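Re: the pair you flagged

First of the two:
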Amino acid sequence: MRLPFFPAERPRRRRGRTLDPADLLRRVERIAVASRRRSESTPAGDYRSLFHGRGMEFSEVREYRPGDEVRAIDGNVTARTGFPHVKLFREERDRTLLFLADLSASEDFGSGFATKRDLAAEAAAAIALAAAAQRDRVGAILFTDRVEKIARPARGKAHALAIVRDILSRPLEGFGTDLAGGIAAARRMLKSRALVVLLSDFRAGGWERELGALARRHDVVALALGDPAERAFPARGLLRLRDAETGALGLVDASSPAFHAAWRAGAPAAAARAACARAGVDFLPLDTARSPSRSLDAFFRARRGGRR
């Protein structure tokens, strides 16, 4: 079962927001102000911890000291000498952050005031503004069942906010999800080591191999977008629904325990988390019911402390 559904009467057409330019500008600025406050209250080292050692240049190996991060231990040197040794890195001056944003039709779903696309824009703003403040280059690949836009990495707050605006409101041609294709596009575009932030609800298949290949060369963080209704569908009797991405119609009995069991089984979060763990990709679930700021803050600090 592909989820979530929209009411069957919703027309199939080129996807876009109905916001007028002034309203769009206010929304982006509102997200920017909230994200700027969050980025100003977060130490720069917390944001840099997203690079997790990657995006850094190797410096030397020395013996382990209390307080060193366990993940920095060099297994080969430790085995050869019989004593724990760690790798030391120095920051590269030219860091690149790339957003890989899934904007398929399922991202337009939200059971409350915000959709998963809104959630993606807010999370991207928080990270993009922190990156812009550190003079890092920020870029994006927006995709559905096709690549909708490529924003080449560049510096500056204005460029970062333009990416947020596109995530929030750019009209789209596609409805479906080609997650593997989006990841492959990032692999083709990135010529040097970068941080890739993947924003998706992971309602797709066949992307695990591409993610593993991307993670072998770059530091990848997966932000999984979700909504409370995807975990517990309201019991409302018979409903005629349409798949948001394929347009397929279906009649379901929303009061049936079997339907609710199938609904929960169709949720991709657990499978996506496991696939990301196998690829060595950090995984953070986000929810439309609350702002992503606290989750991102805790995530930054956990990575800075060496925990996942």
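Second of the two:
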Amino acid sequence: MNPSVAIQSWCFRHFKPLPDFLSKLKECGVEATELCGVHVDFSEPDCFRESIEHIASANVRIVCIGVQYLTGEKEKDRPGFEFCRMAGVGNMSISFGPEAFPAGLKHISELAEEYDLLLGIHNHGGRDWLGNRQMLKHVLDRCSPRIGLHLDTAWALDSGEDPCQLIEEFAGRLSGVHVKDFVFDRSGKPQDVVIGEGNLDLPRMMNLLRTSGFTGPLVIEYEADVENPVPALRRCVQKLRALL
């Protein structure tokens, strides 16, 4: 297993200018990111070249973009795919509404083929229609191999799913992983914690990824401490790298 360790740029949403974000990312000891819409507007192609060059000049790699909420209408969705082509990115985490299934998903698959991209559905918790195992299986059984699962481990926990079981079940369709951990209060409300310090069995997860031959991006996500996320993210990076 030789995956890229990256951090989701959403963790740095308090630092919106690209130079500030890139500086904070590097303070965490990481030079790779899954880039989200906070730091690049994927609907505005005129800004793509400047943003890509700025990120490249900082020696930061974009391993994925997302989460991209797609409509299933090709021309509305196309700009994000164009960004990936220009940036040399081969992976996109996605979501879409139930109204885009199945016809819109066919159009999304065609865009993935046209742009030679792997797309991964982001399971966004128990209140999301794509948050549970049964619906993920139903959708993935009916779409192109270009579309798989970009597993979010914490939101799987929120859905009452075991992220390790999801890795086992969807090993052949796993395009990426958001490595994220939650604890829950008495009402069931989730709270972000450093990975491996909550309900995520991090050693078991990493062993399963290793034995399954996973090579996609490992994207750390920690949404707490919005104004000062670096200390917790450094600990996340250390914990993850210790198991690689």
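Residues 5 and 218 are 5 Å apart (CA to CA).

-B.
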